[in-house]
Amino acid sequence: MRDPLSVLTEAFTSFLFGKVETTRLPVRTSTGQAQAVYLPTAAPGLGDSGVIIGREVYSGKGYIYDPFQLYGQQLPAPHWLVLGESGNGKSALEKTYVLRQLRFRDRQVVVLDAQGEDGVGEWNLIAQELGITPIRLDPMVANDSGIRLNPLDPSITTTGQLALLRTIIEVAMGHGLDERSGFALKVAHAYVTEHTTDRQPILTDIVERLRHPEAESAEAMNVDIDDVRAWGLDVALVLDRLVDGDLRGMFDGPTTVGIDLDAPLIVFDLSHIDRNSIAMPILMAIVGVWLEHTWIRPDRKKRIFLVEEAWHIINSPFVAQLFQRLLKFGRRLGLSFVAVVHHLSDVVDGAAAKEAAAILKMASTRTIYAQKADEARNTGRVLGLPRWAVEIIPTLTPGIAVWDVNGNVQVVKHLITEKERPLVYTDRAMTESSVTDPELEWETEQRAILIEQQMNGTSQSTVA
Asked: By its UniProt entry, which InterPro entries does this protein fall under (predicted)?
């Protein structure tokens, strides 16, 4: 029985100061029991309209992403950067993303496929599944039956043609054109476009005019004809590589008839080109400008331009400048640029650091797969990722990535359907034996589950 004085004191105190909070003793319990009392919370997702990617690791919710749906609400730009070491799932993500986007009728995708397997590009299986023939650029067969893209195609404006020619030369030479070489190129291009009326002008015409300039070209600037010839000699030698060198046949003729620019998926197969040679950025520059003038149209279609090995673009100042202009079409004409890069250091420490920074700034979506700790810290610093995300990047297992969508950061596990699985795996030579081993498949899956549980703060002792 309570002391009467205590009861009277409590009543008087409550009258003056209000009811006193009840003091309760602490309760000891386990996390398994407490989870029913303290319900878990998770950051809001990106909405329910768009393409399913997978599920959020921490909340288990489905993760849906679509730059066209999010643009203007949560995204200032529709462009996307994908980073990560090889073998962690970048390729599978890109392919399932494209396959799922193509289920919408107003979508169209162009892929620059720079990696190959079994003598074809890694997008070949998907192209076959959709009944599409890749545009295979191969200097070994170009002279016979290969595909040609003409930098002087009449569908490209004369200004665009001249800019493309300058870029090709600057990439090959490794420095910008001086005024004299630029003048020689300009007068040769002007003469060829003005006097070639019965067919498409081709690069051979430019090379010939650089070697043998017209007298009126020199007279217009009050210089000697031999000077104009000397100024254009280095330019002619560079372009001759596309005409009679290791890149011959792909760009020194009229554009191949029959390239279907209305197909839902257009794949440029660059797998037969040495990825480490100067040829790759030259090819990407030509394809990029050609697409800019022939593919992008104001027809309300949503277009995706996906570039494998994109460091060939971002690491070259001259090519990067062309693609910066292309990226600006994203807002006006509905273009989403997807750049796939292994290491951010390949970009930010390269020769085109300024241009790379501008392109990275345009990418409002960043997906980061597993990286080494040093690389993860550098990536986090450049991209402004939260500390917790930087710390888990080195621990991520294949198929799991950190997604940063304009500041909305989530850890997402990519899910692949059984129908997609045979189309998206590109390392068949390395994984063929493991794919047919059910026991190894089970072990790999269990290890992935264990790591996910550790990331979620739980622990299970039943997983071997």
From this structure: P-loop_NTPase (IPR027417), T4SS_component (IPR051162)
